[in-house]
Amino acid sequence: MVYDVNVKRIKVQLCYLAQCQEVLRQMDPQTSGLTEKFAAERALHLAVECMIDIGSVMIDGFIMRDPGGYSDIVEILLDEKVISADVAETLKKHVQLRERLVRYYDKVTWTEIRPMLGDMELYTSFSEQVESYLKQELGADWLA
């Protein structure tokens, strides 16, 4: 079967995800300043957006079932063996935080954000698993 996967978009999103990861890696979980909190919130929010955008592009391109929302995108990626159960579980927590950051941004506290700063492996694992799936489905030249 020939797939129409927007690999260019996926590559851009993977690069942006790496930038979000770098910002978060530089964050000190013990800080409590307003600027640091805003930076962490924005980087966490955009990291989730990147992963969900990548998932959406893959779902469309590989003609997987239609998602009903962000959490469903994670479930589809898990069901289709794009990502592992561990990555899916952690990503679901980040999706929940993303909703709070978007809808209830004035109520999000450092207490909610700090644990997410320790999830740096999520971004690396997600990227590696997506790249592995693309290589498996599209061949080694998907990077070209």
Automatic annotation (TrEMBL):
Keywords: Hydrolase, Nuclease, Toxin-antitoxin system. It comes from the Bacteria. InterPro entries: HepT-like (IPR008201), HepT-like_sf (IPR037038), Type_VII_TA_RNase (IPR052379). This is DUF86 domain-containing protein. Belongs to the HepT RNase toxin family.
